[in-house]
Amino acid sequence: MTEASILFLRACLALLAMPIYLLSFLGVWEPFCKKIFFPFFLEKFSAIHERKTKKQKQELFRNLPDFRGPSGELKLLEIGTGCGANFQFYPPGCRVTCTDTNPNFQQGLLRSMNKNQLVHYERFLVAAGEDLHQVPSGSVDAVICTFVLCSVHSVNGTLKEALRVLRPGGAFYFLEHVAADHSSWKYFWQQICCPTWKLIFDGCCLTREIWKNLEQANFSELNLKHINIELPWMPTQPHIIGYAVK
């Protein structure tokens, strides 16, 4: 398909979403999205998404206890905690520092905390992945980052901060939706949906090739798999999953 086809179909989609574009132009959409729509949507969508990704997450986080520090404790830092969808997969007794750019997730987060009381919650920081200055260097055993790198301002900046806060031998865990193969229909539709999707879903980008950022980061070991998660009618089916060691 030609570039012209993509531009035409993008315009058609933008026309359908015109009320949201208008609210954005008036400065109304972003605060509404951050405070009400996105926290509500994410909590509801997470319940559906968890059913689709439960096996993958169980497998992903299975070796978390292997990264306990010399003291025997396991200190986790989660970037973009959202509503706490990952808490159920963390080993009992681990200590979790939660971070997110959006403080409006905290109600959903409290519900997840109440369901998973074997995990110790250290604190919640309002912080972007690219700027974790409140977290000391080399102070955590593992950094968790799921469905976050699609919307950070800088993937490389976030990975750099993750490496900084990890102790030597610590691990960075990831599960992210990514760009499809460039020759596929999936990628064609990702290109069409991307601008409107990004506006509606608080900066989420459909076409990032995040595996390339991970390959170029200064990890000593990278365990990465490309998988598909069946989400009918969604442009977010291609994913990467794995962990990297500092």
TrEMBL record:
InterPro entries per the UniProt record, alphabetical: Methyltransf_11, SAM-dependent_MTases_sf, Thiol_S-MT
UniProt keywords, alphabetically: Membrane, Transmembrane, Transmembrane helix
Transmembrane helix is among the record's keywords: yes
Gene3D superfamilies reported for this sequence: Vaccinia Virus protein VP39
Keyword Membrane: yes
Methyltransferase type domain location: 77-174
Pfam families: Methyltransf_11
Transmembrane parts of this sequence: 7-29
Ranges in a coiled coil: none
Highest taxon in the source lineage: Eukaryota
CDD domains: AdoMet_MTases
GO molecular function: S-adenosylmethionine-dependent methyltransferase activity
UniProt-recorded name of the protein: MET7A protein
Source lineage: Eukaryota, Metazoa, Chordata, Craniata, Vertebrata
